[in-house]
Specification:
186 residues, alpha+beta, nine-stranded mixed β-sheet, 27% helix, 25% strand
């Protein structure tokens, strides 16, 4: 599966993406709101699993490639939520990570809009959710640009965050219905 935006190619992972995928899972700036850093071997195993799931399910967290250069700059996509919170189980989640040198250029919002459209138009989701650590202002800003609204009744403490990272447990939830899509550049 593959689709394009104005500046990006959104696609499944390729073997040549392994270094970028590892960096997306180990760079301190990218991972500041996550309690783990993956080794290269761990990242390779996760990439293989995600690639297989995307092939099988048609959704997942896929690569974002700059059309102009062919450089893989991050990942975005949709996933089914499981085992995080009863209020979210079975929901379609949108998520993203981007290499820091590409932050602030609108790539995440551009790609997320394409994934949201795919989720509603092709996957048939009746809602798309996103969640982040309460202090993750950059991700929350993207959620708002997409037209997502806070859904505090579904906020949760992430069950897979270990005790030594308790500050990363509180997560806020935002949701989007098909009729509320913000397709503007705002």
């Amino acid at each position: 599966m593959m689709f394009e935006t104005q500046r990006l190619l959104l696609r499944n992972w390729r073997d040549e993406d392994r270094a970028a995928f590892h960096r997306l899972n180990s760079d301190e700036r990218i991972m500041r709101f996550f309690p783990f850093r993956r080794t290269r071997a761990e990242a390779d195993a996760v990439m293989d699993r995600v690639r297989t799931e995307m092939e099988r399910n048609g959704i997942g967290f896929g690569a974002a490639e700059l059309k102009a250069t062919g450089e893989t700059i991050g990942f975005l996509g949709l996933n089914r939520v499981a085992d995080l919170s009863p209020a979210l189980d079975g929901s379609v989640e949108i998520g993203w990570r981007l290499l820091p040198e590409h932050w602030g250029q609108g790539y995440v919002t551009e790609a997320a809009r394409a994934w949201v459209a795919h989720g509603f138009d092709t996957v048939g989701a009746d809602e798309i959710v996103a969640f982040a650590v309460r202090e993750n202002a950059p991700s929350i800003a993207v959620m708002k640009r997409l037209g997502m609204v806070a859904d505090p009744s579904r906020d949760f403490d992430h069950p897979r965050v270990p005790n030594e990272h308790a500050a990363l447990r509180p997560h806020v939830v935002y949701s989007l219905k098909p009729d509320a899509i913000n397709r503007s550049g705002a």
